[in-house]
Write a structure and sequence with these properties.
The complex is a heterotrimer of chains A (151), B (664) and C (194).
Chain A: H1 5-35, E1 36-40, H2 42-46, E2 55-62, E3 68-69, E4 76-81, E5 86-91, E6 104-111, E7 117-124, H3 133-138
Parallel strand pairs in A: 1-2, 5-7
Antiparallel strand pairs in A: 2-4, 2-6, 3-4, 4-5, 6-7
Chain B: H1 2-30, H2 33-37, H3 39-62, H4 69-74, H5 81-86, H6 92-113, H7 119-143, H8 168-197, H9 202-233, H10 244-269, H11 273-296, H12 309-337, H13 348-378, E1 384-386, H14 388-409, H15 419-439, H16 449-473, H17 479-485, H18 488-513, E2 515-521, E3 526-529, E4 532-543, E5 547-558, E6 561-566, E7 569-573, E8 580-582, E9 584-587, E10 591-600, E11 610-618, H19 621-638
Antiparallel strand pairs in B: 2-11, 3-4, 4-5, 5-6, 5-7, 7-8, 9-10, 10-11
Chain C: H1 2-5, H2 8-24, E1 44-46, E2 54-56, E3 65-70, H3 75-89, E4 94-99, H4 103-113, E5 119-123, H5 127-132, E6 139-143, E7 149-154, H6 159-175, H7 178-181, H8 187-192
Parallel strand pairs in C: 3-4, 4-5
Antiparallel strand pairs in C: 1-2, 3-6, 6-7
The chains are: A alpha+beta (151), B alpha+beta (664), C alpha/beta (194).
Chain lengths: 151, 664, 194
């Protein structure tokens, strides 16, 4: 059967487009599932809702006085809180300029079986009036880290 | 008095742009040459008024007039004068004024260089630009007036320009970026004018192409400069973060790139007409969308401007009017401009179609990744962020396919090519790329197959261009004569493609072969990274014009030979705020050495140990060098003589056979 | 069918626009103080220095003053403190609201870092702070002679904040009534006071 050349071209084109876009949709769904970082507040950790050894994000206010450094290397530990529960975070790189005790921090990392969050990345932003919205929303009792501790 | 003058100039500009938006286009429908001709002086007038307003704000900054709220917020007396000038666009209001200046500048440029356009087209293009101008005038006057006074209580001293912006890179980054964003409004206006007129021919495409090219070149430079600035100023050696703000600039670039290629088909073959129109609308829409995302606070980003729901609503309404009405116009009028024709699958058209599909696909993925957190939030799926791994996962393979297609398609002819010819043309670049890709990684300390693939892609694109130039000059009397025979746009294209290859090589090599070490160092400590020895000689206190800083002293040497001293700083600006990390970088063509000072291990004891980040960045400069070549290529292509010739309308004959390839 | 296809971009855009519209109001990023231009709520609290002395709203200074929420657990307050000392030395009356704090720690702090406050209220349960709409410390309110809140600042008060935000209003309030000059104030200043 002969087909009109334009129609044939059009058919092939439509087929290519359909294949490509369904491949793209499948690919995006897969990529999204693998690479989305869910956000958890420290109380979610305490409640055992957080998967172990999976890349996640967590955030809260850094508890004043909780920052501890190792003597020899950059290894550092600190505790974050959402006003209800606390979570210990371990990190071995340079903390960002804006990191400070009593301020908000957002951590990307993996929860280790011992209950400590091993951070790949620590983000901090402490414009006095600014608290990352996720942190603000997860805070149980108040909406800002300004001052750093619970009311 | 001067700020009021600026304010009045803005209002005058708004009134003139109302005239610009209505008079010429009305003239084009009622055949009144005088009304159509009014477009040109009106465009110049609008530009003059915005220029006056911009000058007024600049004067307010130079004179440190803190009775102007915007000046008080973004400047202070001890700020060096060159930063006082760049502080004009350091905040939201001023950057909108800069945007407006460029918008009016582009309209004036169209008025100036568009004398040979058919009067109806010119009138409609200028009127559409006038409508866009009205939107920005209203935006600045209603929500973001930079001339608001702090009277009756002017502060004695201003705050400060954000220290991150006190940097030479920042002087040029926003203007270049805005030149690109705004420049796409011209091709957008051409597209709308073509829809209104129901007429789109090769002459139209020839007019639209150079404007697109210039805007694209500016946007390329702007993005590259932003990335370079992030690399050395944000302090930690990263150059792309897939941050919403970066994505917002990348998306119009991707679609703009697709548009340039589709315009080429429209000009040469009279195909892809409605597709080209749609891309022109998309490109400018995405530029506007970027502004909306950055300034409305809808998406949280590290470089977000101070956000304001009122501004967000305004931009959204503006977006809805501009994009909604142009897409509606497109839906109603596209059939009048589309053309149908056939081409073989082995033709340049097919490859350019592939290029377009891939670029749009990449853009769609970037858009999805950027908006997904917003969607999830709106539907209460939880707080989600889409990280760099998602973007890399699709961006890298799609770019690989795109580059492979590029190297193949560059040898193809319009309409149809012969298989044996194509295969013959591909052989040499393929073998060259394969050989280089297998050998080059041997020069590094470890062999990496990712690097082999990346190098293959880069060299493949480069070799394809070189081969094509060699083939095109083969039959000439001498190589030079052959070179002279080709048009400027031909060289522009190849330069841009080679630039892409250079960027690809830079990205691949720096990703695979860079070494990064975060260390705790005390005075006298030494460490070796990638064959370079770093000796830390402690930290001293230094004084800058408006800051003081701790300055680390590191001796850089290799094989016992001293290469130099690196002085990274941790700055504290007098105006307060957060400490700033100033990295010290030893730049070379083949590698950068990047050193940044973290924090003292004990806050109270700066003479003790410090956290230091030592980085060896392989071939990282190539990333921006490649972008520079791309932009120069775009610029050269625009200089092509044929764009300047006043050619009589030569409409491309469209084939009679029905089909919808053009409407894809 | 093929005509309908041309509307596809428009439909996609409309869907996106709706999403943005929703997003715009998803995170109200600032929370305006409900108490701006309202009187300080009534209270009856002991002084930090002396548990037996009860202070009421009527005991607030009869002149424009600052009401500063502070606590010893608040790191930012420690940063802010020297500046408050400097303001007090310049004669600006400041009343402290000591939020959910330990009495001894609060006294020790005032002794160690100097006391800039006319007096501090011991708001141990945080009731006054709740009434004031405070989410954390430090927060500072500018209160006029009639006991009405005229401006609020969340976070540290430093030179910049004082000069650009609080001082202009404070100085006007020392000589004029709010109603006499409120209309002349720039919108940007007022919007920052919320």
């Amino acid at each position: 059967m002969t087909m009109h050349p334009v129609r044939r071209q059009r058919l092939i084109l439509v087929l290519v487009l359909v294949t490509l876009s369904s491949a793209a949709v499948g690919f995006v769904t897969f990529a999204m599932r693998e690479n989305m970082d869910y956000f958890y507040a420290p109380s979610a950790f305490a409640a055992g809702e957080v998967p172990v050894e999976k890349r996640i994000r967590a955030g809260g206010c850094v508890v004043p006085g909780s920052l501890q450094r190792a003597d020899k290397n950059l290894e550092v530990q600190f505790v974050i809180t959402d006003g209800e529960a606390e979570l210990t975070v371990a990190f071995d790189k340079i903390l960002p300029d804006l990191f400070a005790e009593g301020e908000a921090a957002v951590i990307t990392g993996r929860l280790m079986p011992n209950g400590i969050l091993r951070a790949d990345q620590v983000l901090a932003k402490h414009d006095e009036t600014y608290t990352p919205p996720e942190v603000a929303e997860s805070m149980v009792s108040h909406k800002s880290c300004a001052g750093g501790a619970k009311i | 008095m001067i700020p009021e003058l600026g304010h009045v100039a803005l209002i005058a500009g708004l009134l003139l742009s109302f005239a610009l938006a209505t008079l010429p286009i009305a003239g084009s429908y009622t055949a009144r040459p005088l009304w159509m001709a009014a477009g040109r002086p009106l465009a110049f007038g609008v530009f003059a008024f915005v220029l006056i307003a911009f000058a007024c704000l600049t004067i307010a900054f130079v004179q440190s007039d803190f009775t102007v709220d915007y000046v008080a917020q973004n400047s202070n007396r001890i700020l060096p004068v060159y930063y006082k000038i760049t502080a004009v666009w350091g905040g939201h209001e001023g950057s909108i004024l800069l945007w407006l200046l460029m918008q009016a500048g582009w309209a004036a440029a169209v008025a100036m260089f568009g004398r040979q356009l058919p009067p109806e087209l010119s009138a409609r293009v200028l009127s559409v630009l006038g409508m866009v101008l009205i939107g920005f005038f209203l935006f600045i006057l209603l929500t973001s007036n930079p001339f608001d006074r702090t009277l009756p209580f002017p502060p004695v001293e201003g705050s400060d320009l954000n220290p991150l912006l006190q940097d030479p890179g920042m002087i040029f980054h926003p203007p270049l970026l805005y030149m690109g964003y705004v420049g796409f409004s011209v091709v957008f206006a051409f597209a709308i004018a073509a829809l209104l007129g129901g007429h789109l021919d090769a002459v139209w495409a020839r007019w639209a192409r150079p404007w697109t090219g210039v805007a694209w070149a500016f946007l390329t430079l702007g993005i590259a400069l932003g990335s370079w600035w992030a690399y050395y100023e944000l302090g930690w050696g990263g150059w792309w973060f897939w941050d919403p703000v970066e994505n917002a600039s990348l998306m119009p670039w991707l679609v703009g790139t697709a548009l340039m290629h589709s315009l080429a088909v429209t000009e040469k073959r009279g195909l892809f007409k409605s597709w080209t129109i749609l891309l022109a609308i998309f490109t400018f829409s995405l530029s506007l969308l970027g502004t909306f995302l950055v300034r409305s606070g809808v998406i949280t980003s590290v470089h977000a401007f101070a956000t304001d729901p009122q501004r967000g609503s305004f931009i959204l309404a503006f977006l809805a009017v501009v994009i909604g009405s142009s897409l509606l116009l497109f839906a109603l009028r596209a059939p009048t401009v589309s053309a149908r024709s056939v081409f073989s699958f082995r033709s340049l058209e097919t490859f350019l179609l592939g290029n377009n599909i891939l670029l749009i696909l990449i853009m769609a993925m970037v858009l999805t990744g950027t908006l997904y957190p917003l969607l999830a939030d709106a539907l209460n799926w939880g707080k989600i962020s889409v990280g760099a791994p998602f973007f890399n996962l699709f961006f890298v393979p799609l770019m690989v396919v795109l580059c492979l297609l590029l190297g193949m398609g560059i040898h193809a002819n319009w309409k149809s090519s012969r298989w044996d010819k194509l295969l013959g043309a591909w052989r040499l670049p393929f073998l060259t790329a394969l050989a280089v890709a297998l050998l080059w990684p041997l020069a590094f300390d470890h062999y990496h197959w990712g690097a082999v693939l990346g190098i293959f892609i880069g060299i493949w694109v480069m070799a394809a261009s070189v081969t094509d130039i060699a083939v095109k000059t083969r039959n000439a009397k001498s190589f030079i004569v052959g070179l002279k025979r080709q048009r400027a746009s031909y060289y522009g294209m190849h330069l841009a493609h080679i630039g892409l290859a250079v960027t690809v090589l830079g990205v691949v090599l720096s990703t695979v072969y860079s070494v990064e070490k975060d260390l705790r160092m005390g005075a006298g400590d030494s460490y070796q990274v990638a064959g370079y020895d770093f000796k830390f000689d402690g930290v001293r206190l230094v004084q800058g014009p408006n800051y003081h800083a701790f300055e680390g002293i590191l001796q850089l040497s290799r094989d016992g030979e001293l290469l130099g001293e690196l002085l990274p700083q941790k700055r504290n600006y007098f105006s307060g705020g957060n400490p700033m990390t100033e990295a010290a970088i030893d730049t070379g063509l083949l590698r950068d050495i990047h050193v940044a000072l973290g924090e003292p291990m004990e806050r109270t004891n700066p003479s003790g140990d410090w956290a230091v980040r030592l980085q060896y960045k392989a071939y990282v400069v190539w990333i921006w060098l490649g972008a520079l070549l791309m932009a120069i290529g775009g610029g050269i292509a625009v200089a092509d003589k044929r764009y300047r010739k006043a050619t009589a309308a030569r409409s491309v004959e469209s084939a009679q056979v029905p089909g919808t390839l053009a409407a894809v | 069918m093929s005509r309908l296809k041309l509307f596809l971009p428009l439909f996609i855009f409309i869907a996106l626009a709706l999403l943005f519209w929703r997003g715009l109001f998803l995170e109200p990023q600032e929370m305006p103080s409900a108490l701006l231009n309202k009187p300080v709520p009534a209270f009856s609290l002991p002084k930090v220095a002396d548990n037996h002395q009860i202070v009421r709203k009527e005991d607030l200074p009869r002149e424009p003053h600052l009401l500063n929420v502070w606590a010893t657990w608040c790191i930012a307050c420690r940063v802010e403190h020297p500046y408050l000392n400097a303001l007090a030395e310049r004669g600006v009356p400041i009343v402290g609201v000591n939020l959910k704090d330990d009495e001894k720690a609060a006294l020790a702090w005032l002794e160690k870092f100097h006391n800039p406050y006319r007096f501090s209220l011991a708001d141990r349960e945080g009731r006054l702070s709740l009434d004031l709409g405070v989410f954390g410390a430090p927060e500072t309110f500018l209160v006029d002679a009639g006991g009405t809140i005229r401006c609020k600042h969340v976070g540290i008060v430093d030179d910049k904040v004082w000069q650009t935000k609080l001082q202009p209003l404070y100085e006007k309030l020392t000589t004029q009534r709010w109603e006499e000059f409120a209309d002349d104030l720039s919108d940007s200043l007022l919007s920052r006071c919320q």
